[in-house]
C-alpha cells in the first residue's frame, strides 16, 4: 500500500486523551480505542495484541481488531512492532503499533481506514506503556492493558491530496 511511507506518516494527526479539533478544510473521523491489550509471553516482547474500535459520533461501530496473519487465517502470535497489519480478513481497518520499548515508554498506534478505492483516512495516537500483570501461561507471561478509565482516541483524516 502506497500510503505507508514516511511522507504519509508526517501528515497523520495525533490525538490521545484529547477531543478532536474542528477543521474547516479537512474532514476528520475520531474513533475511541477500548480494551487495548498486548501479550508478552517472554515478559518483554509483544507476541500478540487486540483492541476495539468504537464510534464517537453516536454511531454503533464496535469493531474488534487484532493483527491478522493470512498464513494462519487468524490473529498472529508473532507480532512485529512497526509492521502494518489488517484487523482481519478483508477488513477495511489496518494498523501499525510501534512499541516504545523501555527507552521512552511512549508507544504509537497508527490506524488506517479504507473508505473507497483510492480514498484512505489515517491517524495516530501516542500512549504510555500499558499496565502489565501476570498472564499465567509461564512465569514470564505478561498481559498488558490500557486501563478502562483512560480515554484513548485516534482522529483520522484523508491521506495524500
From TrEMBL:
Disulfide bonds join 132-144. Residues 26-157 form the AA1-like domain. InterPro entries: AltA1. Keywords: Disulfide bond, Secreted, Signal. It comes from the Eukaryota. The keyword Repeat does not apply. Gene3D superfamilies: 2.40.350.20. Residues 1-18 form the signal peptide. One of its GO terms (cellular component) is extracellular region. It is found in: Secreted. This is Putative major allergen alt a1. The lineage of its organism: Eukaryota, Fungi, Dikarya, Ascomycota, Pezizomycotina.
Amino acid at each position: 500500500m502506497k500510503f505507508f511511507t514516511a511522507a504519509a506518516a508526517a501528515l497523520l494527526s495525533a490525538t490521545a486523551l484529547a477531543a478532536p479539533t474542528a477543521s474547516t478544510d479537512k474532514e476528520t473521523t475520531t474513533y475511541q480505542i477500548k480494551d487495548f491489550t498486548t501479550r508478552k509471553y517472554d515478559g518483554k516482547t509483544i507476541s500478540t495484541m487486540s483492541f476495539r474500535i468504537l464510534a464517537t459520533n453516536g454511531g454503533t461501530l464496535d469493531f474488534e481488531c487484532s493483527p491478522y496473519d493470512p498464513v494462519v487465517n487468524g490473529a498472529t502470535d508473532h507480532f512485529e512492532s512497526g509492521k502494518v497489519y489488517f484487523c482481519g480478513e478483508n477488513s477495511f481497518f489496518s494498523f501499525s503499533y510501534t512499541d516504545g520499548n523501555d527507552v521512552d515508554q511512549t508507544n504509537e498506534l497508527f490506524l488506517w481506514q479504507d473508505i473507497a478505492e483510492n480514498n484512505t483516512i489515517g491517524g495516530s495516537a501516542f500512549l504510555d506503556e500499558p499496565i502489565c500483570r501476570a498472564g499465567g501461561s509461564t512465569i514470564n507471561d505478561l498481559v498488558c492493558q490500557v486501563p478502562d478509565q483512560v480515554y484513548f482516541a485516534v482522529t483520522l483524516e484523508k491521506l495524500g491530496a
